[in-house]
Design brief:
Elements (H helix, E strand, L loop, with lengths): L1 H41 L8 E7 L4 E4 L15 E4 L4 E3 L8 H10 L5 E5 L2 H8 L9 H4 L14 H5 L2 H12 L10 E3 L5 E5 L2 H24 L8 H11 L15
Antiparallel strand pairs: 1-2, 1-5, 2-3, 3-4, 5-7, 6-7
Helix pairs in contact: 1-7, 2-6, 3-7
């Protein structure tokens, strides 16, 4: 009899523990995403409110993203917005970034990624506005991106007037029909700007920062030599594989992604 009476209390403790674990996990994600957004501003990758970062907890099915139009110096972890995979707000009082639908499309299409960054950083945006891929002209580029940074086609008028942000994500996914997003963690959206990603939101910020450096190097290189060729494929493969994949040997072993 006493065992039966204690059973509900045990279930209650399990529920409380589960709720506490969920809150701890979500709070950690909020902090990581807040730090990532502030880092975009401090690195000069996102001026004014031009950009956003998000992170996902796939076990919870929750995405945390910057609120729309809020200056970076006003961000706090509790000002970020948590949504489910359908974009419904589950925590937060502010409107999520207007780019949220693009992020959600990418999270659904690329299951290996854990964070996304969108910026209008100068040189990456120059290439996007020029409607040109960023060619792989040197080993700095090859260390992080396996080939030219791809660019989407322009959206048709119908896609712009209806569900524009969702259709932007779909255009990116179409461009990646024959590309591996873990080997090419960035894309240019024609006439717009860049989206980058990584296994965590912190890694996505690093990708965005490296992309801007690579974009600037490529711009200066083609300015000096408009006829320059991309580096040979063997050199591209060697430099990329030194840092990525099962045969990588550059650097030290990392701990868990944050």
């Amino acid at each position: 009899m006493s065992a039966r009476r204690s059973e509900p209390r045990e279930r209650g403790r399990h529920r409380a523990s589960g709720s506490s674990d969920r809150n701890d996990t979500l709070n950690a994600l909020r902090t990581a995403v807040c730090d990532a957004n502030i880092e975009l501003s401090s690195r000069g990758l996102a001026r004014f409110t031009f950009g956003n970062a998000s992170g996902i907890d796939r076990a919870l099915g929750i995405v945390v993203i910057k609120p729309s139009g809020v200056p970076y110096d006003e961000l706090q972890p509790d000002s970020l917005v948590a949504v489910d995979m359908d974009g419904r707000v589950v925590e937060g009082t502010l409107r999520p970034s207007s780019d949220l639908p693009t992020h959600l499309v990418l999270y659904r299409a690329f299951p290996a990624i854990g964070g996304i960054v969108h910026t209008h950083s100068h040189y990456a945006t120059v290439w996007a506005q020029s409607q040109r891929e960023i060619p792989c002209l040197g080993t700095t580029h090859a260390d992080y991106f396996h080939g030219a940074i791809p660019i989407t086609t322009h959206l048709p008028q119908s896609d712009i007037h209806s569900e524009y942000e969702t259709n932007t994500g779909k255009a990116i996914v179409r461009r990646f029909h024959d590309l591996d997003p873990t080997r090419m963690p960035a894309v240019l959206v024609a006439g717009h700007a860049s989206f980058c990603w990584g296994r965590s939101v912190r890694h996505a910020v690093e990708t965005a920062s490296i992309l801007e450096d690579v974009a600037r190097m490529a711009y200066d290189t083609v300015t000096l030599n408009a006829a320059v060729d991309p580096i040979p494929g063997a050199l591209l493969d060697k430099h990329f594989s030194r840092k990525h994949g099962p045969d990588s040997y550059y650097g030290q072993l990392e701990g868990p992604a944050l």
